[in-house]
């Protein structure tokens, strides 16, 4: 038996809105929304057309969630199907619960 008297035991946290393709941009320079999307976000998200890149970032992203106690999340991916496939395969291996899917917008990041 383990003594948890001096510990805080809580269920896993839930993140209801997070963008996994923007993991590499955390703390990046800000701008007005449309300019920021065009100059920074869409070029970064465009790299998710590469399945290996999507696998690497999804693995890092999910480890970051878990290391902060998040076990369930509603996750935005990109327009690239491989970004979603990578996310779900990594999440399944870690026994995480996700609501996610391919983003359907007309952004020029494809």
TrEMBL record:
GO CC annotation: cytosol
Membrane recorded as keyword: no
Domain Amidohydrolase-related: 8-103
A Pfam family it matches: Amidohydro_1
Gene3D superfamilies: Metal-dependent hydrolases, Urease, subunit C, domain 1
SUPFAM superfamilies: Metallo-dependent hydrolases (SSF51556)
EC number: 3.5.4.3
PANTHER family attached to this UniProt entry: GUANINE DEAMINASE
Protein name from the UniProt record: Guanine deaminase
Gene encoding the protein: guaD_3
């Amino acid at each position: 038996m383990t003594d948890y008297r001096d510990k805080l035991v809580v269920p896993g946290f839930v993140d209801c809105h997070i963008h996994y393709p923007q993991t590499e941009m955390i703390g990046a320079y800000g701008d007005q929304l449309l300019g920021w999307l065009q100059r920074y976000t869409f070029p970064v998200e465009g790299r998710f057309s590469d399945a290996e890149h999507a696998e690497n970032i999804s693995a890092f992203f999910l480890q970051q969630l878990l290391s902060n106690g998040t076990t369930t999340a509603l996750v935005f991916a990109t327009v690239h199907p491989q970004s979603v496939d990578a996310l779900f395969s990594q999440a399944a291996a870690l026994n995480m619960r996700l609501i996610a899917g391919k983003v359907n917008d007309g952004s020029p990041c494809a």
